[in-house]
């Protein structure tokens, strides 16, 4: 008996990637960790904060520049922190860190950015020179801050719903409390 008859190939040749298989960068990107409404809101936060930053950068001169500089710092920080949170949620980094800490960080980052963006937009509105770029920047700033605060409200609602599901039922057992433990 020859070796060819005994040692036949037991696997098929690789015919290439199957339909629907993910490869390359797509294999590392999983947006399903966030529900669709929060995913859309996170995308809008990213887009609106970037647009606010770009519109603010177009401003060539200012009379009272303090509000402009504060708005610039907040809009750039908001964009970068939002991008960071999206990368954590949508890449394998999420699997390497504690999910509770990611959600808690997202909770506080979203609240902080939303509040600071709203404050920066109010200050910028009160100090700008009424050019079209400044008006567009403040509009995008108010829209972005509303998206951050809406996302924060959704997270508060989800935490409230989650705590109500975990809450045990309260039963009235007054007679059991008066009985001795060793009886």
TrEMBL record:
> Key word Transmembrane helix present in the record?
yes
User: Which parts pass through the membrane?
Assistant: 77-95, 107-125, 137-157
Its membrane topology is listed as: Multi-pass membrane protein
Q: Which UniProt keywords apply?
A: Membrane, Transmembrane, Transmembrane helix
Does Plastid count among this protein's keywords?
A: no
Protein's cellular compartments: Membrane
Gene Ontology cellular-component terms listed = membrane
Q: Which Pfam families does this UniProt record tie to the protein? A: MARVEL (PF01284)
- Identify the PROSITE patterns for this entry: MARVEL
Q: Where is the signal peptide?
A: none
Limits of the MARVEL domain: 33-160
The organism sits in which domain of life? Eukaryota
Q: From the UniProt entry, list the residue stretches annotated as the region Disordered.
A: 1-21
- Matches recorded under PANTHER family: CKLF-LIKE MARVEL TRANSMEMBRANE DOMAIN-CONTAINING PROTEIN 6, MARVEL-CONTAINING POTENTIAL LIPID RAFT-ASSOCIATED PROTEIN
What is the protein name given in its UniProt record? CKLF like MARVEL transmembrane domain containing 6
């Amino acid at each position: 008996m020859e070796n060819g008859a005994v040692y036949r190939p037991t696997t098929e040749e690789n015919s290439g990637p199957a339909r629907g298989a993910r490869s390359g960068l797509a294999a590392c990107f999983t947006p399903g960790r966030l529900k669709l409404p929060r995913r859309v809101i996170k995308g809008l936060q990213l887009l609106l904060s970037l647009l606010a930053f770009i519109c603010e950068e177009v401003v060539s001169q200012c009379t009272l520049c303090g509000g402009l500089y504060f708005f610039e710092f907040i809009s750039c920080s908001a964009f970068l922190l939002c991008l960071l949170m999206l990368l954590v949620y949508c890449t394998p980094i999420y699997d390497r860190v504690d999910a509770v800490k990611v959600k808690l960080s997202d909770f506080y980052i979203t609240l902080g950015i939303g509040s600071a963006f709203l404050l920066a937009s109010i200050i910028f509105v009160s100090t700008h020179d009424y050019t079209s770029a400044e008006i567009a920047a403040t509009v995008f700033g108010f829209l972005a801050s509303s998206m951050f605060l809406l996302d924060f409200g959704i997270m508060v609602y989800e935490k409230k719903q989650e705590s109500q599901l975990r809450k045990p039922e309260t039963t009235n057992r007054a007679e059991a409390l008066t009985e001795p433990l060793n009886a």
